[in-house]
Amino acid sequence: MAEVERLLTILPTADIARKSWADFGEVIVVDSYEEMLAEADRIFGGGAGLDGASRFVQLSAVAAALGASMGATRVITDRGWVEHQRQVGTTGVVVDPRVYVAFGISGAVQHRAGMEESAKIIAINWDREAPIFSVAHYGIVGDVHKVIPMMIK
């Protein structure tokens, strides 16, 4: 639980959209899902550890609430759960966001090569030996299916 709370303090929230215009001068709410993946400042990537297309709907909701774009591994785009332009990796889009959060991604070499230049990488995986942890700055060893609902709350 402490790891999740620390994760949530690292990521900016969507509360900025509730501030008044006078606070910032201008607030533009971006549909982060439609943002060009290569240009995204924050990316939530999902992998095979998410056990179905419905989990990507949940993850997309969390990403949108936190102003992040959605990314996925090749396995996921090949299954058709997420469109191919959202594939992160050397066979997809190479990204270097300020924050990359890997949900249920084991970390195949092609995926890691496509996101390892991210300023901060946070990995959530049940397997403490998963290769994704070799490039992560922060890691949560745990069930991604319990972490996502906690983030929704």
> How many strand elements?
5
Order of helices and strands: HHEHEHEHEEH
Summarize the amount of helix as a percent range.
Answer: 25-40%
Helix run count:
6
Produce a short descriptive summary.
This protein is 31% helix and 16% strand. It is α/β, with parallel strands linked by helices and 153 residues long.
List the helices and strands and how they pair.
Elements: H1 2-10, H2 21-24, E1 42-46, H3 53-65, E2 69-72, H4 74-79, E3 99-103, H5 109-115, E4 120-125, E5 138-141, H6 144-152
Helix pairs in contact: 3-6
Account of the 3D structure:
This protein has 153 residues and is of the alpha/beta class. Helix content is 31%, strand content 16%. It contains 6 helices and 5 strands. A 5-stranded parallel beta sheet has the order 2-1-3-4-5. α5 links the parallel β3 and β4. α3 (53-65) crosses α6. The chain is globular. The model is unreliable at 1-32 (pLDDT under 50).
Could you list some keywords that capture this structure?
153 residues, alpha/beta, 16% strand, disordered N terminus
